[in-house]
Protein 1
Amino acid sequence: MGVIRKTLNWYARLSPSRGKTSPPYEHVVQIGDPRLRKTSEPVPIDKIKTSEVQKVIKTLEYVVNKYGSVGMSAPQIGINMRIFVMKLTAQQVSSFPAEIVKMRGISVVPLTTFVNPTLKVVDYIKVVHPEGCESVRSFSAEVARYKKVQITGYDQNGEPLQRTYSDWAARIAQHEMDHLDGKLYTDIMDRKTMCCVCWEEVNLSKGKVAIPFAPE
């Protein structure tokens, strides 16, 4: 492990953008970062409109768009606050085959910010589908999630907010809620289904594949 870490650090020093940065980051932290395993702290309601909290929210919005993701939690950008954003654009929906859209119940979700969210299960039926995470880059596994949930909290302006989500949107919400409690999908996945999403490319390129941890 020592040799591997020394090699990785040597490569990291070659990065033109190398240097100390402070959260909220404009990149997504990876599994192993202790902040992903901490239970995040609630945000005082009267602090939601402060520059500190608003910066976290704006950075989450920036990063979720930068990565083309469907959800992002504050711990993933290095901040242990109970905040997450989620979205699913028409363009993202159209990127899935029609049969997958129908089977998984994938639909458009407007960009939504939740501060201090709580989750209530509405439909206890669990559905199993492949799931990935920007903090477990280039891997996926099958995960069972509740079919329908209700999220209650506050929006970016400190106003009460409640949304009920079904199917794929419910999966996104549950995934992000887990992050706020220091959990990852790897904790509840079907371990035998975990795979590298680019395993075929690894073989085709004879192992010469670079996995970026941020979009170019």
Note: The beta strands are 71-73, 83-88, 109-132, 139-154, 160-166, 195-196.
Protein 2
Amino acid sequence: MESNSVSPMPTEMAPIAEFEKTTPTPMEDAVPMDDLPPPPTAVSIAEEKEKEAAAEAEGHRHYEDENEWGCGNWLEYTLVIVLATILLLGSLGLTLFWVINYHGGFAWQENPRKQFNLHPVLMVAGFITFSGFSILLYRICRCCRRIYVKLLHTVFHALAIPCVALGFLAVLDSHNLADPPIPNFYSLHSWIGLVTMGLFAIQFVIGFFSFLILLCCEGATAGFRSAMVPIHASFGLTTFMLAIAACVTGLTEKVMFKLGDDYSQWKEEGIVVNVLGAILIALGILVSFAVRSPTLKGDTRLSVTERL
């Protein structure tokens, strides 16, 4: 019997996937576990923080030692500040002595001659004494925070404003109510005084706006306020010098009108006025030296204190 054999049908083979024929990247050498650093512990982290704090404190101490004052620096600081304070108060006291003893004291519009006596006293009080202390505050208050010094600086200038205003009104009334009336604003003294009052008003407005009002947005205005500091300081010192010039010319004008030819005879009132003028000039020298001297500046020491 013949058996029918069925030959199997040839099946199609699946195509062999082609792989990228590149050399495989060799594996990196495995690091033995024994060579790995131990994980940080709480004790090691605390020790590291203590070392960083000690190094930072040591750096601050070195910084403070570099800026530490010696005996000569403190002697210079004490001499300038104490002498300037005595002269600031002494100029006002000597002005009061001159007006009361040689001009009969004070009055208002009922006596224009005595009303004029308010002018030198109030102008010296406002432009010299209060303004001088406001400038020296940045050298006197070395250990105070800067914002407190700024507030005191503003307070002293604010105290000077009514003094200057009343002194200006007193001289205008005394001239206009005199019989016969005295002309106004014709002398060099009056011109210097007007310039001084104008600069003082501009300085106060700009300083109040720039260094107090703008502190509400301190970060955004830091660059502007930093740029304004040298300008404000320079014009403040200029205003103080102009005030001294106005006082000296005014004193000379007044004593020459009253004494006339007797001024050259070494009269007692003339000597008092000359001493007062010399005190004002000495104040100009001392205050400008205190402001400009690098030794008396307290910026570095204040920054160290704040950092510590």
Note: The two ends are 116 Å apart (CA to CA).
Protein 3
Amino acid sequence: MSKRSHKSANDERDDPPMSRLFIVCSKSNTEKEFYEAFSKFGNVEDVKIVKEKDGSSKGVAFVKFQKTSEAANACEGLNGQMIGTSSRPIKVLIAASRNMGSASGKSREDEKAQRLFIIIPKGFTEENLHDEFDKYGEIEDISIIRDRKTKEGKGFAYIKFKKFSYAALAFENCDEKYKAVFAEPKPSRSGSSSLNDSGSNASSNYGDDRYGMSHDLMVSNNGDCALHVICSPMITHDQLWRLFDIVPNMDYCKMNSESDFSSSATVVYKTQQAALHARQKLHGFEYPIGERLIVKLSSEMKSAPVVDTQNFFNNSNGANFCSVNLPSPQAQAPPQAQCAQRCFIVCSPHVLPIHVLKKVFCRFGNLIDVYLLSNRNCGYVKYASHESARQAMKTLHGAEIYGVKLKVLEAEEPSEPRKRSKMDLD
């Protein structure tokens, strides 16, 4: 089961995560020797020896594997071994990744490679997770994030394996519903640095843990620190991260799909006060222009806070996000279809994102388009069928979508201009 995700060109070198190794080696080691030694553990995609300005080796190299598990086996199998004709043992580490933050010290690096962050049903127990993940290798610890007062699970958990290779197997092969990612250890207060491809030190671009939440901070909070965000599909993970990081004390941000281009995300802060502040500042904020963010506390959602947006909209009756039951999604009308009926819609207190409105109004069939008037909280829905428009008005008028109330009315069609008669011209 592939866990490879869509990334920008700059991040393809770290796809899948933890598949790139950093090697401290002899300056005499060649690319051919690296290929011969590391190919025994899997498909080597690239070898890069970092060189001085004069072309000589710096004594460090990077090896990129096709799979995370292959890199894990190579890391464990070749660390401390000699390759080629050199008598110097090589040191094999996991290369720092922009998406995975950075590690300072061997213990933090090991923890990062052995620990997974997963999404689970709120009723899951440690025994359930042990039975599910024990098949991949020896487990050291399972930690379910729980509410301090109610002891109810928050839908998040950490699993720490004995070895990197065990965690890699679980990452690649566990059910996609767990949305497994490698969990960054809690950042040290003194900051951290990472080795980049030039062999020099570079500060992490993201600082705090990008994928894993700080367990101590989550458990210590009485209130709800998680936000559920509905945003434009055009927003990337990096853009959303930077937007919500404007509010101090953000601990975690994750798109709820395999792709960086999603329309649903979970953002967690270290304190309830910070989460409430972010909700107040960013709910209804236009980003990008014309698309407003919906930001809710997870406790305000009718379902679990983390949602796969595609399944959330496409495979439900709307109970998760709408105050009325909706029919199943239907295909849109062809682009050349003629408009049979327009509906006039009003959103209060603010407009919903266009992609959300389309996901809702398409359920009645024959939808041509949804558009909003500039700088207004109203717009029009065009249908190729009078019956589809009638059903949309009957079902959605007065309904609430994510707390936004809709008015759906029959639109007045503009009358054709009267032809000027000869008398008018006279």
Note: Residues 53 and 271 are 48 Å apart (CA to CA).
Protein 4
Amino acid sequence: MPVPCSARCGKNATLKRPKTGDALCKECFFWAFEMEIHNTILNGKLFKKGDKVAIAASGGKDSTVLAYVLKLLNERYDYGLDLFLLSVDEGITGYRDDSLQTVKQNQTDYEMPLKILSYEELYGWTMDAIVAQVGRKNNCTFCGVFRRQALDRGAALLGVDCVVTGHNADDIAETILMNVLRGDIARLQRCTSIITTGADSIMRCKPLKYTYEKEIVMYAYFKRLVYFSTECIFAPNAYRGHARMFLKDLEKIRPSSVMDIIHSGERLSVREGVKMPERRNCTRCGFVSSQEVCKACVLLEGLNRGLPRLGIGKSNKARLLLTNSAKDKGKKTPIDF
């Protein structure tokens, strides 16, 4: 027997929202989904009129839906934003080269300028070459660090005011769990922030912070959006995968687990007197860092020296080595850009 739409629009329901349990027709689901993101943008004061905004585009479901919805809301509510697509080519054969074709399709569909930067042009390394050196155990460390800085570099080249990323509620809940398990207080504070920025750095924000991954998939499916759905070939061994499986198991017992974890993370506070890392600029590359020499520079120096594990884990010794090496030479190191 048909179930009527919970919004009382007179139509029959097509789906059940994972986030609320409401039975909705497609049109009411679209409206609810878009309004939640609109409210997140307004409540978080993410943009101001005239801002140039770069959308971190990977070709996956999150960034594709983000680009589509931002364009729609920008026109519907007159945000006055100038939107760009910014992609990073990590150099992963059989994965990123294919997903970039989807990004180029998004460029055409959404009529947005596209800028693509590659690890090879920025760092002189591709992820394929890095994995050949370090193996598959710690490769995600390199990719995550380099990708974050590559987005900063791309944003600086485009002269944008803000970079928006497709981090959804599930991503943030997973990150909170990972940082709790690692005892990483500094990252635990930052990962729950909807806006992150540092000294002289470009603002980043997460319009999909409260949006469930399942609903993003449903929205993309019913809107028939073109996106790339293959998982990175180097990702199966990533630490995040264990947090993701744990979160899925929690959801089976308590469907509200994702939002519960996010709200808990937002309310955690650090005891007074605890010294936290200060955000500053890397003395090598000039980009934002919590240390004198940023993680990207440490990792890159290790690769260039034939010591790929130099920056893995606690890297204080590696940073000391870099600092002393630069002092001894009295000149800039190869990691300066």
Note: The two ends are 65 Å apart (CA to CA).
